[in-house]
Amino acid sequence: MLTLRLYMLQRITALLMAPLVLGHLAVMIYAVQGGLSAAEILGRTQGSVLWFVFYGLFVVAVAVHGAIGVRAILAEWGGVRGRVLEGAMWLIGLGLFALGARAVWAVTFGGLT
User: Where are its TM segments located (predicted)?
Assistant: First the structure.
């Protein structure tokens, strides 16, 4: 039953990530074609709750999706089972979340004093 729940959760996060990836790519293409510098981009994202929510949701979806994917790989290819498998999934998921959350905070609120 847990495997089915994780499978469904991974599919739901994939559905969530698809429009977020497209949005991110559209913004990056717009920024590059517009000739915006990194400082100009950060000037537009600093203090923006909208960008914080957009990229925060992206980070949560990626962390969950990636952790479940690595769990499946460890189980199928590595033969890892039980508590080690679950611990690895949680460690990877929390690690991805921590790295992503730090980046989102830095881009949206980190430069504010």
Answer: 12-32, 52-75, 87-107
Within 13 A of 52's CA, how many CA atoms are on the CB side? Answer: 10
Amino acid letter for position 88 = A
Right CATH for 2-108 from 3.40.50.300, 3.40.630.30, 3.30.300.20, 1.20.1300.10: 1.20.1300.10
Helices (H), 34-48: 38-45
Backbone angles phi, psi at 48, to 5 degrees: -90, 115
Q: How far apart are CA 64 and CA 32, in angstroms?
A: 30
For residue 113, what pLDDT band results from cuts at 50, 70 and 90?
low
- Residue 79 DSSP symbol: -
Terminal Cα-to-Cα distance of the chain (whole angstroms): 48
